[in-house]
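User: Can you help me understand a structure? I only have the sequence.
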Amino acid sequence: MSFELIPHKLVYGGEALGHHQGRTVLVPRVLPGERAEVEEYRTAKGVVHARAVRILAAAPERVEPPCPYFGHCGGCQYQHIESQFQATTKREILRETLRRLGKIDWRGNIPVHAADPWNYRNQAQLKVERRADGNVALGFFEAESHRLFPVDACLILSPRLNGLLRELQGPDWSRRLADSREIEMLADDRDEHVAITLRGLANRAEGEALARDMLERLAGVVSVGVESEGQLRVFGNPRLDYVVGEFQYGVSPGSFFQASRHLVPDLVNAVVAEQTGRLALDLFAGVGLFTLPLARRFSSVVAVEAGAKEARDLAANARGHSCDHLRVVTEAVHDFLRRFAQMQPDLVVLDPPRAGIGVQPLKLLAALQPKRIHYVSCGPPTLARDLAYLAGQGYELKSVDLFDLFPQTFHIEALACLARRAA
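Assistant: Let's start by predicting it. Here is the structure, written out as tokens:
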């Protein structure tokens, strides 16, 4: 059954929130102030989840989505919103999330760092589906499902990755990819070279032959990893070189790296600029995106990364830049903090996954009494939770920045800088 709804705000996750007959309603692809006809499709925990049937009165910020797949492919949520309004909306969502979930009433400015809102992604995870004719469809999951939605091109992928997407769907490659379940691609900072990781190929000989053919015949491909049954074999270059500022990072197939190519240098500068001292800790360090610049500014740096591939890349990147005073620890952050005994590090950089840091690691971190904490977050709800705990442990929030690394989506990357209050 359909009903009219006028939402009053956008919330984290990409939906608009409104109320109907005393019930909270969430609906995607509708803007605040618009009058829309919507229909309920499920109710969970008292919240009505609806889909838009038609827009009866559009908001001035609404634009025509340029992608023909928008609304079906699950990759984008905001293509119907003018780009500048997307960024300012994300700022207000971040501010409200800090207030509502963390009881942090941040009234200071939240600078929004933005760049070209299209062709920015340097990484893609393409899902693979075998068709009845033996060929494959490549694409992404549909919105709110795990069904594959085939795409011929993606407007937020880099030009190099879009070219490879088109080529891999051609007759020369399609049947040979049928036994894969996922194809991951990572392009370098200049969008020239690409590392590919194939997941799910069980036949060892076929996987090796496919990898070698990709290296020889696909323009720009310099590294191919074949991952099956928990093992990864790499052909071509063992690592893709990625330059950020004055530093070159080697990234192995399957290692995590930032997926947005335009604003990463700005993010790194904001995290490490004007920071100096005796000791810095880089927790959840990855391949060393923040670690290497920190090593130029601190007498001693300890970088902690639980992922074995990323930790190996981090150690190799440190050697490549002669960072002899940098120690790499391959361990979960919680385990490291349990035994680390150097009190009052000058700076701790945190870049955890979306789930945040966790209560126990936060307790151990606060016990070290670091002078400053720079927290990079891709999940505002967990950022609010963690900042609330740190505020109760004697830390004051000094600044909040928003980096719109992923335009056209609801995702928010934030940097929160904290300092320990004077005793």
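Now, to help you interpret it: The chain has a mean pLDDT of 95. The chain has three domains: 1-62, 95-115+260-420, 123-241. Let me know which part you'd like to focus on.
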